[in-house]
Amino acid sequence: MKNVAFGQYYPAESPIHRLDPRAKVILTVLYIVCTFLCKNALSFAGLTLSALLLVLLSRLPIGMVFRSLRPILFIIAFTSIINIFMTKGEHLLTPADWKIQIYAEGLWNALFMVLRITALILGTGIFLTYTTTPIALTDALERLLAPLKKIKVPVHDFAMMMTIALRFIPTLTEETEKIMNAQRARGANFTTGSLVTRAKALIPILIPLFVSAFNRAFDLAAAMECRCYHGDEGRTRLKVLRYRASDLYAVLIMIGFGAAVLLLNHYGAGPVLS
Description:
The protein is mainly alpha-helical and 274 residues long. Helix content is 65%, strand content 0%. It has one domain (21-267). The chain has helices at 21-37, 41-58, 62-67, 73-86, 104-130, 134-144, 155-185, 195-201, 203-226, 245-267. Helix 2 (41-58) runs parallel beside helix 5 and helix 4 (73-86) packs antiparallel against helix 5 (104-130).
């Protein structure tokens, strides 16, 4: 669970760390769009290079960044298998009389999907979690969604709930590990047996975890009431967000990357995502 990127901020001095959090949210959306625009081998090669460039620009430990892919290895493997065995094409790689037939198009599709999912996880993780604190992220979302206040949408309440949720993800993860270690010391086994047996073994973990979470929620509510918290009314901020020229340049570069992906899709040669 320590490999989950959500809520894990890594302090460093990098160009991505210095960007305005609102610009990072916009960059994340644009980067996600770019990943889905890729259609052929050249555009996916550009996507792979962009993901590696983001890792280098963020100045994060490479091992830590790629360990965040561990929780989705099953999804990557399952997607690859589905594409390999379910995609039909013109270039058959196995004998025609075999029941299981594999086409070259299926292998290319599997590779493209792996690159797309990996780029999505790395890009969103670098922009939104590893280089942005949860407080800065929710503050950025609140500022970006501020126009919705005119139609009575409680934007501040949503942002506050998101802040609290992101803040307590590492805390609850640590609490879960402590409870599991305590249960193992008492002879509990979470790795062997049938699926039903292992599910039942999790019950002694879930009950104390829920109790601990509710206790923390009550303590947090009491602390907020003692500090006279009344929502967005009359609220001021310690750090005022301001756009800089570097934020504009980063957004323009990402738009240019999207335009380059479209050009590679149109003029590039090689295998195409089917």
